[in-house]
Design brief:
Blueprint lengths: L1 H24 L4 E3 L2 H7 L3 E5 L2 E9 L3 H4 L1 E7 L7 E4 L5 E4 L5 E2 L11 H4 L4 E6 L4 E6 H10 L5 E4 L7 E6 L1 E9 L5 E9 L1 H6 L4 E4 L1
Parallel strand pairs: 3-8
Antiparallel strand pairs: 1-2, 2-3, 4-11, 5-6, 6-7, 8-9, 9-14, 10-11, 12-13
């Protein structure tokens, strides 16, 4: 487990460094989040602009270049949270392993993932393989995911991290003409948002690292 945590941490730090380079290259006035802010607010950077502090959470996605899917982690520990179900933008139910169901203050539930806890104004998804990043307003992304919950597949990570999340299609994908080891067709993402994102989440932007 320690090895898995180290891998996840290293991947996260690598993504943060890439985005910090973007901030520097664009002469942004910013600071890294403090340890307290990281732990309590799930943010990575604070950018100062136009009289306000803009909080940003960074994710380093290692699969989006293949699948076109963004991983929306809403459970950080499956030992503490059994399932999450959204009915609309406001109503949800979190089921704990003991069967208890909670329908209020999702951000305060132990074991809930960062996508429901972060106080950021923007989420940034890094794809180093594509040399791009997606930036999207956090509240708009949450609304899109919550109101379209039944469209997405849930993926429990099998790498030992014990987290779970929704696979949210973002990019269009094409078949490579090859087959993966499991017999499924191999795909790759192309640098264009899919039609649902264009329609329901037009605020999402693809930018270069």
């Amino acid at each position: 487990m320690k090895h898995i945590f180290s891998q996840d941490h290293a991947t996260g730090v690598a993504g943060e460094k890439l985005f910090e380079s973007v901030l520097k290259n664009n002469n942004k006035n910013y600071r890294p989040a403090t340890l307290s802010e990281q732990q309590k607010e799930d943010i990575d950077f604070v950018v100062v602009g136009k009289g306000e502090e803009i909080k940003i959470e960074v994710k380093n996605d290692q699969k989006i270049h293949e699948t076109g899917n963004m991983f929306y982690e809403d459970i950080s520990n499956l030992n503490k949270v059994q399932s999450v179900k959204y009915f609309n933008d406001k109503d949800f139910v979190v089921t704990l392993p003991n069967g208890q169901q909670i329908t209020e203050r999702i951000d305060e539930i132990d074991g809930i993932g960062c996508m429901e806890r972060t106080t950021s104004k923007f989420i940034v998804y890094i794809s180093s393989a594509l040399g791009k990043y997606i930036i999207v307003p956090t509240d708009k992304l949450r609304t899109y995911v919550h109101t379209n919950f039944n469209r997405f597949y849930r993926h429990n990570k099998v790498d030992g991290s014990n987290s779970s999340g929704l696979l949210v299609p973002m990019f269009k994908t094409v078949y490579t003409g090859r087959t993966k080891f499991n017999g499924k067709p191999e795909t790759r993402a192309i640098l264009e948002m899919n039609d649902n994102i264009k329609r329901y989440l037009p605020e999402a932007k693809i930018l270069s690292l």
